[in-house]
Amino acid sequence: MRSLEGRPDLCSINTATLGHRQPIAEVIEAVARHGFGGIAPWRRDLEGEDVGNIARRIRDAGLAVTGYCRSTAFPAATPAAAAAALAENRAALRDAARLGASCFVIVAGSLPPGSRDLGAARRQLEDGVGALLGEARQLGVTLALEPLHPVYAGDRSCLCTLDEALDLCEAVDPGSAGGVGLAVDVYHVWWDARLAAALRRAGQGRRITAFHVCDWKVPVTDVLLDRGMMGDGVIDIPGIRRAVEAAGYAGKVEVEIFSARDWWQRPPEETLATCAARLERC
Questions:
Q1: The pLDDT of residue 41
Q2: How many CA within 13 A on the CB side of residue 109?
Q3: CB 1 within 8 A of CB 242
Q4: Dihedral of the CA atoms 154, 155, 159, 160 (nearest 10)?
Q5: Which of 151, 215, 234, 277 counts the most CB atoms within 10 A of its CB?
Q6: Residues 253, 241: Cα–Cα separation, whole Å
Q7: Which residues have C-beta within 8 Å of that of residue 68, sequence separation ≥ 6?
Q8: Which fold has domain 8-281?
Q9: Tens-digit pLDDT profile for residues 136-183
Q10: Order of strands across the sheet that contains 180-185
Q11: So where are the chain's domains?
């Protein structure tokens, strides 16, 4: 496993970690100033911005774009709504390519309002990812499926385990043609008894495209917005990272923390400095 001591350049900051409070230009400057090697912006950070200009700012700051977050939910109540979601995702995928992002993060979505048919939601997800695949290959941007913790199965993601995500990869992109991979987020996968085997399986297909870290606090006061800084919870982050890198992942370690009552209330400079220190230690 690579040492991160004194190597923030091997790490990336997902802009959600800073709470989306500053203009993206200021975030880019701050991330670069702290020595990080990458940034992963959200679509909301680029609203009203010139994507080409932001791409130049990121390049000029010496940062890689480790991912672009995130897809519009694929499952929808009507064909028209599904088509609109696909159109939004196509546009976001093109923006990811303009940014030079290594991947476009796919957060599946789940049951549309009024539905109880989880199987239908999963079929819509597979159809939607399959529909994006050709353009993703042409643009050179991997679709990174990010399974979420099962607590989100009813609303945010019908994709809950790495094995489910790998099954979907193989269904739409057999033989690992490079179009579909995984975003492995420790917050969502740490609990899975099959995690080690799933990571080995992912390694066989070279499917891991992104690796996100934070921590699971005990107790968690809000499963969405109370993620912990690395070292403040119960996740064996070094153990998972060791397995991820043994599976062939050599990209940057990306910090993604949703923390409405704690880290999003602190000065961004403090959050970034703490991220750098915890990445070395935890």
A1: 98
A2: 24
A3: yes
A4: -60
A5: 215
A6: 9
A7: 40, 41, 42, 43, 92, 95, 96, 99, 101, 103, 104, 105, 141
A8: TIM Barrel (3.20.20)
A9: 999 999 999 999 999 999 999 999 999 999 999 999 999 866 799 999
A10: 64-65, 38-40, 11-14, 253-255, 208-213, 180-185, 142-145, 103-106
A11: 8-281
Cα(178)–Cα(75) distance, integer angstroms = 24
* C-alpha Rg value of the chain to the nearest Å: 18
Reported in sequence order, the residue ranges of the chain that DSSP labels E, i.e. its strands, are 11-14, 38-40, 64-65, 103-106, 142-145, 180-185, 208-213, 253-255
- Return the residue matching tokens 């499917």: 207
Q: Alpha helices of 12-103 — where are they, by DSSP H?
A: 24-33, 51-60, 79-99
CB atoms within 10 A of CB 36: 27
pTM reported for the whole predicted model: 0.97
Which amino acid type is present at position 48?
A: G
Q: Are 227 and 187 spatial neighbours (Cβ–Cβ below 8 Å)? A: yes
Give me 147's structure tokens. Answer: 């399974």
Tokens for 162, please give them.
């790495």
> Using CA atoms, how far apart are residues 54 and 56, in angstroms rounded to an integer?
5
Asked if residues 122 and 130 have their Cβ atoms less than 8 Å apart, the reply is no
Amino acid (one-letter) located at 29: E
Per-residue pLDDT tens over the stretch 4-34:
999 999 999 999 999 999 999 999 999 999 9
Residue type, 212: H
DSSP state of 229: P
Q: Comparing C-alpha atoms, which of 203, 182, 194, 217 is closest to residue 247? A: 203
Encoded tokens for 77: 């109540």
- Burial of residue 23 (number of CB atoms within 10 Å: 0-12, 13-18, 19+): exposed
